[in-house]
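Researcher: We plan to redesign the surface later, but first we want a full-length starting point. Tokens attached.
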């Protein structure tokens, strides 16, 4: 990478920082941007917390707990009922109630994620956008540099191919001259 390109890259990154700070300031001051950043940040927070909780929780343990609670609810209901023979309709209703209880138990195990305060949400959203901007600038610089180096490599390969073609032409000329010399010698010897 040339020194000029390195300096240009450094200058762009240096200019990106104040721009990202300006984005943060705008997000805090304007109500439209504030609302946008709050909504965006709350969504990011929910996704982040779900991922963290999903990674920390052991699904097998949760399923065992749900099964245990469903069995306990079933046992309580059976203890309250007098033992009787149920009709088919009563069996279906019983199974339906059991399924509903299982759903309620599963829903009670979903954690409730508290939203961020407005100031934290604005700060988090603005930080995310400013970091995304800096990341985008860096990505563009990397893509440009790889494009430039591949173009340079293609030029070098083209130059080498041209030189090889020129050398092959020289070899062909020399071969034809040698053949001509051999033919002329053969004529002179006769």
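Model: Full-length starting sequence:
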């Amino acid at each position: 990478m040339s020194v000029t390109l390195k300096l240009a890259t450094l200058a762009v990154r240096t200019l990106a920082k104040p721009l990202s700070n300006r984005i943060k300031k705008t997000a805090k001051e304007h109500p439209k941007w504030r609302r946008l950043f709050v909504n965006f940040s709350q969504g990011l927070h929910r996704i982040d917390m779900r991922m963290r909780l999903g990674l920390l929780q052991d699904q097998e343990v949760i399923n065992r707990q749900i099964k245990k609670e469903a069995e306990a609810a079933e046992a309580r209901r059976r203890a309250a009922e007098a033992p009787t023979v149920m009709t088919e309709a009563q069996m279906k209703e019983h199974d339906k109630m059991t399924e509903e209880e299982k759903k309620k138990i599963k829903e009670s195990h979903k954690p409730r994620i508290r939203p961020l305060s407005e100031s934290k949400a604005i700060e988090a959203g603005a930080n995310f956008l400013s970091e995304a901007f800096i990341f985008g600038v860096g990505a563009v610089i990397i893509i440009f540099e790889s494009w430039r180096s591949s173009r340079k490599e293609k030029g070098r390969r083209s130059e080498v191919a041209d030189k090889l073609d020129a050398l092959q032409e020289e070899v062909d000329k020399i071969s034809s001259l040698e053949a001509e010399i051999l033919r002329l010698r053969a004529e002179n010897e006769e």
